[in-house]
Amino acid sequence: MTKPVTIEVADEAAPARTLDGRGQSTRADFLRKAVVGGGAVVVGRLMISGLPELVEARAQSAAWGVETYQVSVKKALASQADLIEDPEHCSADPETLARIGRGPGQQVRLERSSSEYALYTVSETRQESPDNVVRAGAGGRQRLGTSAEFAGNVNSQVPHPTFTDAQAEANSEFIERLTDDGQHQGLIAIAPHGGDIEPYTDEQAERVAWQLASKRVSAWRCKGWKEGGGTHQRWHITSTDIHEASFPQLKKIISRDFRYAVAFHGFGGTGVLIGGTAPFSLKQEIQQAIERAVGSGIAVRIAHPDDPLGGNSKRNVVNRLTTGDAGGIHIEQSFTAREGHWEAIADAVTAVYGRKLG
Q1: Considering the entire predicted model, what is its pTM?
Q2: What does 39-81 look like in DSSP terms, one character per residue?
Q3: What CA–CA distance (Å, rounded) separates 358 from 351?
Q4: How far is CA 259 from CA 252, 305, 323, in A?
Q5: Thinking of the domain 67-155, which architecture would CATH place it in?
Q6: Strand locations in the chain (E)
Q7: Rounded to 5 degrees, what angle do the CA atoms 79, 83, 89 make?
Q8: Residue 53 CA from chain centroid, whole number
Q9: Start-end ranges of CATH 2.40.40.20 in the chain?
C-alpha cells in the first residue's frame, strides 16, 4: 500500500494560478487540509540515465510493487485496425501481461529507452510467439521516437507512488492525486489530463473542491509534464479508456456512485463544449452559468449526441463515477478559454453544484 506523503506546497504554482487568484496561501491551506485528511496522494516516475540507475530504479520499483518485462515491439498486424488507428493503443500476450499484474483494457508504460517512454492502453490481447511481443501501429511507435520495430520494456507502473508536483515536473513525470473523505457521494470534480497535458484543468477541479470543501466534495486529478514539449503525446489516455486497475487512487472511488461528477478537459477547438450523460437540464444550467462568467467572446455550447468530444459514452470515467453512469458532466475548453477564464469557469460550475448540494 502506498504510504502517505507530504506535499510541498511552496512550489505548487505561481501566484497568478493559485486557487483564490490573490496568492499562494489559500491553495496551500487547501492542499494541507487534504493531506491531513488523508486525501491527497502524489505519484510520478524516476528519470533513468544509465545502467546503474536502471538497476536502482528497478529495485525501487520492486519495492513499490511495480513489475516490468523486456519486450520486442512489432508492427500491428493488418487485422489490428484499432492499433493502426489509435496511437495510444497496443496489444500484448495475455499470459505475459498477467505476470506483471495487468490485463486487457488496462494501462501500462511502454519504454524504448530511459528518455523515450509513454502510457498505452492494452486494447487487445493475443497469443504471441515469442510471448514477449507487443504490437503497436505506426503512430503508436512514433510516440516513442521511431517508426521502426524495437526492443524495450513494459512497465506496470502508470502513476508514480511518491513524487510531489515539483519533483514530477522536474523529472518529466506523471502523478495521480485524490482528495476524498472516504464516504462523500455528492460531487466529485476530476481532471484526468492536468499539469501540462491539458493546462489549467487540474486547477479547475481543485478549485471546485476547495470552494465546496464544507460540503466534503471530492477531487481526482492526474498531472503530467515533459521537458521540451510533447506532454500530451506522452501521458494522455482517452477518458473512455482509463482503467481503475492502473490508477490506485481512482480505484478507491470508482464504485462510490456519486450523485454528480464533473470533468474538466482541454481541446483544440474553439469555445467551451458541455457534454456527458447528465440530464440536459443540468447541461443547460452549466452552459448558462459559464456564458455569464466568460462573456460573449467565448462560445459555450452543448454537445450533440453524436459529437465525438461530447463525453456521452458510459465508458467515460466521469460518467462511470456516477450512479447508473448517468450523472457525468464533461467540459471541453479551448486553450483561450482556459488561459483567460479558468477560474471564472470553475467558479460558474461551483455555483451550479453548490445549489444542487444544498
Answers
A1: 0.83
A2: -----------SHHHHHHHHHHHHHTT--EEEEEEEEPPTT-H
A3: 11
A4: 16, 22, 6
A5: Beta Barrel (2.40)
A6: 68-75, 89-92, 107-111, 117-125, 133-136, 150-155, 174-179, 187-195, 218-224, 260-266, 272-275, 300-302, 328-333
A7: 150
A8: 27
A9: 67-155
* CATH 3.40.630.100 domain extents, the chain: 9-42+165-357
Query: For the segment 16-61, what is each residue's pLDDT rounded down to a tens digit?
Result: 333 333 233 333 333 333 333 333 333 333 333 333 444 444 445 5
Residue 3 is given by DSSP the state P
Beta-bridge mates of residue 187: 260
Q: What is the pLDDT of residues 145-204, one digit of tens each?
A: 999 999 999 999 999 989 999 999 999 999 999 999 999 999 999 999 999 999 999 999
Q: Which residues pair with 118 in a beta bridge?
A: 110
CA–CA distance, 158 with 2 (Å, rounded to integer): 14
Dist. CA 91–CA 349, nearest whole Å: 39
Distance CA 197, CA 173 (A): 11
Q: For residues 219 and 21, which has the higher predicted lDDT (pLDDT)?
A: 219
Domain 9-42+165-357 has CATH 3.40.630.100: yes
